[in-house]
């Protein structure tokens, strides 16, 4: 290319695509998916659940309580005393009032502990309780 003075001018810009707007969109989508994602909560231990032919998946399980084979109660990967269970369930229920409480009781645990957990949850004001089972 020649300029007005007749000297040769080299082209310094290479043809290319500006990807900055695309990166902006990708980051906005990433933030959107992180904010709207539903994370699966776990009680903290693996439980050998009993089988049930009519088991139904609970969509809005916000509180998970696990009872292991040694009748220990677990919430949020921490072993919890049955006497402090009511206060913990009240706090978790206040964070998500529309959620349900799911009890994951091991098939070798005692029914007495299961009934105590259900009783503490009802005292905490949670009446929507489900028992976990394998299909």
UniProtKB/TrEMBL annotation:
Q: How does it sit in the membrane?
A: Single-pass membrane protein; Single-pass type II membrane protein
What's an example GO BP annotation here?
protein transport
Q: What is this protein called?
A: Biopolymer transporter ExbD
Single GO cellular component term:
plasma membrane
UniProt organism field = Mangrovimicrobium sediminis
User: Among its keywords, does the record have Zinc?
Assistant: no
Q: Which terms are listed as keywords in the entry? A: Cell membrane, Membrane, Protein transport, Transmembrane, Transmembrane helix, Transport
Name any one Pfam family assigned in the record: ExbD
Family statement drawn from the similarity comment of this UniProt entry: Belongs to the ExbD/TolR family.
Domain of life (superkingdom): Bacteria
Which InterPro entries does this UniProt record tie to the protein?
A: ExbD
Q: Does the keyword Transport apply?
A: yes
- Coiled-coil region(s): none
A molecular function GO annotation: transmembrane transporter activity
């Amino acid at each position: 290319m020649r300029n007005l003075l007749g000297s040769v001018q080299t082209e310094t810009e290479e043809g290319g695509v500006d990807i900055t707007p695309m990166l902006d969109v990708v980051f906005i989508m990433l933030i959107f998916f992180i904010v709207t994602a539903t994370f699966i909560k776990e009680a903290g231990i693996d439980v050998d659940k009993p089988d049930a032919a009519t088991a139904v998946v609970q969509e809005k399980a916000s509180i998970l309580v696990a009872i292991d084979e040694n009748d220990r109660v677990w919430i949020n990967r921490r072993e919890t005393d049955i006497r402090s269970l009511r206060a913990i369930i009240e706090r978790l229920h206040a964070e998500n009032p529309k959620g349900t409480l799911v009890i994951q009781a091991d098939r070798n645990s005692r029914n007495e502990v299961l009934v105590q957990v259900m009783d503490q949850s009802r005292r905490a004001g949670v009446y929507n309780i489900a028992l976990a089972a394998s299909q």
